[in-house]
Amino acid sequence: MKILVIEDEAGMLHSITAYFAKSGYVCEVATTFAEAEEKIHLYEYDCVILDITLPDGNGLDILEQLKKRKSQAGIIILSAKNSLDDRVKGLTLGADDYLPKPFHLTELNARVVAILRRLKFDGSNEVTIGNIILNLDTKKVYVDKEELILKKKEYELLLFFISNKTRIISKTSLAEHIWGDNADRADSFDFLYSQIKNLRKRLLEYKANYNIEAIYGIGYKFVNV
Questions:
Q1: CATH numbers and ranges of domains, the chain
Q2: pLDDT per residue over 109-137, tens digit each?
């Protein structure tokens, strides 16, 4: 899953991104209002962790822009101002949750996971498609009750395909979602082709009844086989 952390406090930013990166999330960051504004217009995210107080603007204005763009991202507001007005305004504008500083990273993680489950998987911690079962808590995958061992990026690709099973996904969208900012620095999509090839092979070996289909000139789709 891809998270954008909008936070100007360096120590807090490092703690949040290190924690989520260790958990397997792709984390991008913005430390100013201008940087955050640019990122939400260029990229899509599963979740946005948004500090209200930014050096060059109000984080609630970023929230308003996300909602005007009809972003599907879950949004958690962070603020040192533990005031009722901030909380009410943020939730009224469409934020999914509000967490006052200071907080424990485990609590922030629990709220992110809860939002992603609710928005993408109807609140369930298990996702089933065909004979594939994916557990969001343990990050384990089973095909006909036999565990399918995947590498981290393969797991993220599979989860992204399942989350978007009705869509054709472009190569650019896949690369940005799984590799974040690093995808922009790549000279080619070879790194993506390699991961998709490996995931396809693993699904075929375990006789999964869904796999990745290449749509010529466009991208990929997760289809019943």
A1: 2-121 (3.40.50.2300), 126-224 (1.10.10.10)
A2: 999 988 888 887 777 888 899 999 999 88
